[in-house]
Structure formats: C-alpha cells, structure tokens
Amino acid sequence: MPGLVPFVAPPRPAGAPFVWQHERRLFLLDRAARGWVAAELRFDADDCRYVEVRRATYRWPREAAGALTARAVALGDAVLARLAHDLAAWVSGTSTE
After folding, report:
1. Total domain count for the chain?
2. Is the pTM of this model over 0.90?
3. Inside any domain, residue 9
4. Of the candidates 25, 51, 52, 50, which has an alpha carbon nearest to the alpha carbon of residue 37?
5. Radius of gyration over alpha carbons of the chain, in Å?
6. Is the pLDDT of residue 46 over 50?
C-alpha cells in the first residue's frame, strides 16, 4: 500500500540467543559457560507455559546447530528450510523480519 513504511526489525544484540518458534515448539540455541546449548520446548496450553522437551550442551556451535536442525527434519521440508534460513541469518547477524 502506498505510504506505508515496511517494518524492519533492528539488528539483534550481540550475544543474543537464537530463538525460533514453530506452532507449539520453541527452539533455542545459545552459548553457555560450558559450550553451546540446543533446547526444544513445547507450549502447554493447559498450564499456559513452556515445558522443556530436551536440552543438550555441545562443545562446538556447529554441533548444536546440527542437533537443532535435525529436530526440525520431522516437521517437513518447508519448516526445515525456514529454520535453516533463519539460523543462517542469525549466524550472520542479520534479521529475517
């Protein structure tokens, strides 16, 4: 529409974790004191909170990112492609908004 300015998300703060949501699942990737943490949470609508499904710590960021993307394989090719795109943008420090 003419006259509308598109929303552009500000760049993420340095050190901000990767957080990605698909339906009721929330995927997290963050640097911790002992390595890189990849976690998956599920939203519990009855209790209105997220429940941790799995969490693992990896020595290298590529291992943690691989574990995170492996979890998305079962969600289908389109979801996996979007996660990979957003994860690549996070690594490069750009926004996907």
Report:
1. 1
2. no
3. no
4. 52
5. 15
6. yes
Tokens coding 94: 């750009």
**If you search the block for the tokens 């394989």, which residue do you land on?**
73
| 2 within a domain of the structure (yes/no) | no
Does residue 50 lie in a domain region?
A: yes
What domain range is 79 assigned to? 18-92
* pLDDT value of residue 16: 87
pLDDT tens by residue, 49-60: 999 999 999 999
CA 16, CA 6: separation in Å to the nearest integer?
24
Q: Which long-range contacts (CB under 8 A, 24 or more apart) does 58-62 make?
A: 59/35, 60/35, 60/36, 61/29, 61/31, 61/36
- Domain assignment present for residue 35? The answer is yes
Distance, CA of 55 to CA of 37 (rounded, Å): 7
